[in-house]
Amino acid sequence: MATNPTQYAHPEALVETDWLEKHLKDEGIRIIESNEDVLLYDTGHIPGAVHIDWRADLQDPVIRDYITPEKFAELCSKNGITPDTTCIFYGDKANWWACYALWAFRLFGHEKVKILNGGRDKWKAEERPMTKERSSYPRANYPVPRKRFDKEIRAFADEALAQSKAKQPLIDVRSPGEYKGEITHMPEYPQEGVLRGGHIPGAKSMPWKTATNEDNTFKSAPDLAKIYFDQCGVKPGTDTVVYCRIGERSSHTWFVLTYLLGLDNVRNYDGSWTEWGNKVGAPIEKGA
Amino acid sequence: MYPTKLNKIIRLFETLPEDERRETIVSYAENAKKQEPRKNEQFDLVDVRKDEECMDTVGVYLHVDENGKAHIRMTLGPEVQTLTRAMAAILCKGLEGCTPQQILDLPSDFVTRIVGAELVRIRSQTIYYVLTRIKGICKVYLDRQRMAKVA
Across residues B54-82, what is the average pLDDT? Predict the structure, then answer.
């Protein structure tokens, strides 16, 4: 589907804006917008796109966890999505939240997922069509997923600790200031209740945005390989864990490593720093 | 309890079903530019800054007229989120003609009545930012007035 394939391991995981504009009405695809700005979809979106909010739709309202498989099935069914539907995610902030939503869909085993390269900002900058009309589709019948793929693509605190102790690749994708422990939240965002600053011992710092170009598209495969293989010590066949503050920025890096560089053993530690930095006795390193 | 103009806005939002509430919030956000300073307007205080609670620069401009009534204008950087834009437009309109002291004394519970429980639940950190900034500039204005009187 990508009209500009670049040597990515899975170029089919990306669609370009030009391709999408020509295929807006294709059967079997669902365009999904997922943003940080909760009302951005309401201000205008790609025609036919549905809105899925990372907080309201994908997270449990009480417990810090994702929705149940039953609720995931309901979310998909009401948006006319079946397991055969190709879900094309896009959003603000260089697809940061779109990657988070995609990762959550993978958590429930939905396999047909893609990202719109460049996201909402590129689509808008190219003056492609936008609408305020809310999209609705005939209800589908999405079967309740039998399991959640936590073991495969998600890491928990004890697994992140094991990764640290084993000196296996661990990538901290937050800003340098957060990594060094100078600040406990990302620049320009409010403090979200983290008691300690720093990083998990042994983690390499590689801010998530390093993987994108100026226009929010992903960097080429050779450039990404240099960043992650050469600078972060990631290699095929070795387990890698990525983390950030709540697992959103690291979903972007997870997508890059999994789909663009083709690693099949990357897990996102979504508890991330808001769990680690508050956890009694969790080892912390400070400084660069 | 609330200034008349603000009270009208609160009552309007409270009557709206969720879908229309969101549409109205977006509509306010889209009209936020109308609250920018106009040509030749003079201000007693200007507070333009970018702080960590917000994605981009937000400017608050305060003019207090000869009757002691406050007139507020705001500028919003392009990255400022929709909800913040909407609150800027709502508050500039709703607080027009209040005194700085009235603004400072305003309880903040009305914000949730405008925004609605669902948006508060999922984005609680952003909804009070504009009110805090407006109260901030009013406080500085009143403090300076008091200091001038003492001097």
Answer: 93
